[in-house]
Amino acid sequence: MHQAVIATVDIVFLTIHNGRLGVALSKRDKEPFQGGDALPGGYIHAQEDRDCLDAAVRILHEKTGILPPYLEQLQTFAGAARDPRGWSVSVAYFALVHYRVIESAHHPDVAIFPVDALRRLPFDHNDIIATAVDRIRNKAQYSSLPCHLAGETFTLPKLQKVYEACLGEALNKVSFRRKMQELAVLEAVPGQMETEGAHRPAQLYRLKAEFKNGLKSLARGL
Amino acid sequence: MHQAVIATVDIVFLTIHNGRLGVALSKRDKEPFQGGDALPGGYIHAQEDRDCLDAAVRILHEKTGILPPYLEQLQTFAGAARDPRGWSVSVAYFALVHYRVIESAHHPDVAIFPVDALRRLPFDHNDIIATAVDRIRNKAQYSSLPCHLAGETFTLPKLQKVYEACLGEALNKVSFRRKMQELAVLEAVPGQMETEGAHRPAQLYRLKAEFKNGLKSLARGL
Fold first, then answer.
1. Domains and CATH numbers, chain A
2. Predicted local confidence at residue A2, as pLDDT
3. Sign of the alpha-carbon torsion through A141, A145, A149, A154
4. CA–CA separation, B118 vs B111, rounded Å?
5. How far apart are CA A213 and CA A71, in angstroms?
6. What is residue A222's predicted lDDT score, i.e. its pLDDT?
7. In this predicted structure, what is the pLDDT of residue A194?
C-alpha cells in the first residue's frame, strides 16, 4: 500500500464588508497553527461525506454555523510541502454570502479580513485566497456570480457597488444596467422600494429562484 | 485516525484525429476494470511526487510514453461511489498534443477515441471527459489553448480547422485571423512555406516560445 495522503477540504468564504471584498477566517482549534486565523477546513470523513461538496458544506457549517447557498469548486492544492502533517490534497471551494449572514451567525471564532491586506496565513492559504479572488474578479466580468454577495434583496445601485468591489474598479451605470438586463437573472420584488437619504425611492430586486444556487454567464463581458 | 481516502490523478489527454476532437485512453493493466480502456491515471506517490502536477506528468509518461508540453488542472472528482476500492479523490488534469506525438510514441496500450462517440467507460471517466471537453470548447472561444493541438508548426487554415474541431462549428476566416492577430501568440517561421494541393504556398507559423507551456486570453471571444 502507498504512504497515506491526507485528504482535506478548505473553503474560501467571501463577503463584502465596508465596501471591500473580505474573507471569513476561523481560529484554528488544534495544531498545527493552533490559534491562528485560517480558512475553514478539515478532513474528508469517508464514513459521513458522500462527496467533496458534501464535505465542504459540513465543514463550513461546523466552523462557521452557516449553510451557504452558493459553493463552487475552486481548485485543488496538493503536495508534500503545504501541510506539516504530510503529503496533503486540499480540494478548495469558495462560498459567497451577504455580510449580514456571517454577522447574524455570531460565531466567536470567525472574523472577516479584507482580501487585499492579509497577513501571512497558515499552510498555503494566502495562495488559495488569491486564486479565489482571481476567479471572482474574472467571473464578475461576465456572470451573475457577485449577486450572491448582495443579500436577499438589493437595489441596482447597491448591486453595482458589489460588482465594483469584486472588480476593484468603478463601472458605468448605464452599461451596468444594460448588462444586468441582458443577464436576466433578477426580478423586481413586487411593491418593495427602498428609500435612502435624499435619493428618490429605488426598486428592490432579488435573484430569480432558478439562479439562487447557480450562475449565469454572458457571451460578452461587462 | 480517519478512514483512508484514495488519492489519484487522472489525465484527459486530447488530440485532433481525422478532424475530430479525440481522447487517448489507455488499457488498464489491473483490477478494477482490468483490460478496459480508461483515462491514464494512478495513485499519487507521496515519496516520489512533489505535488499533483508532478504526479500527473509522471503518470501520463508511464502510461503513454509522452511528456506533454501543456497540462492544466481540470477539476477534482471525489466521493464514496466513483471507485469500487473506496472513497476516492481524483485530481483531473487535461493535456493537449498533436496527433503525431501520440502516434510516434507507438504505445501498444494507447488508442484514440472521438470524444462525441464514447462508450460507457470505467469509474466516472465519461463525466471527467465531458468536463474537459466543455472546458476546451469554452476556452477555444477566447484563448490560445487550441494551438497546443496544432503541432510544432502549422498554416493558419490548419489552425482554423483545429479551432473549429474544438468548437464544433465553422468560423469565419477573416474574423478568425483578426482574433489570432489580436492574441499575438504566433510567429511566422522564417522562410517556411507549405504547399498543399492546388493552393498557393501558405506561411507556416508556430507558438512564440513564451506561450509554449502557457495560455493567453482575449478580453472578448471569437
1. 6-139 (3.90.79.10), 152-211 (1.10.10.10)
2. 59
3. positive
4. 12
5. 8
6. 59
7. 81
Q: Is B215 on the interface with A (CB under 8 A)?
A: no
Count of residues in chain B: 222
How far, in Å, are A87, A177, B219 from residue A171 at the CA level? 44, 10, 16
Three-state DSSP at B16 gives: strand
Q: For the segment B138-182, what is each residue's pLDDT rounded down to a tens digit?
A: 999 889 999 999 999 999 999 999 999 999 999 999 999 999 999
Distance from CA of A204 to the nearest CA of B (A): 31
C-alpha A193, offset from chain centre:
27
Type of residue numbered A98: H
What interface predicted TM-score (ipTM) does this complex get? 0.89
Non-local CB neighbours of B150 within 8 Å, separated by 6+ positions: B98, B158, B159, B162
**Dist. CA A10–CA A128, nearest whole Å:** 9
Taking the C-alpha atoms of residue B129 and residue B150, their distance in angstroms, rounded to an integer, is 20
Shortest CB distance from A50 goes to which of B7, B54, B80? B80
Q: Name residue B89's amino acid.
A: V
- Give the HSE-up count for residue B33: Cα atoms under 13 Å, Cβ half-sphere: 19
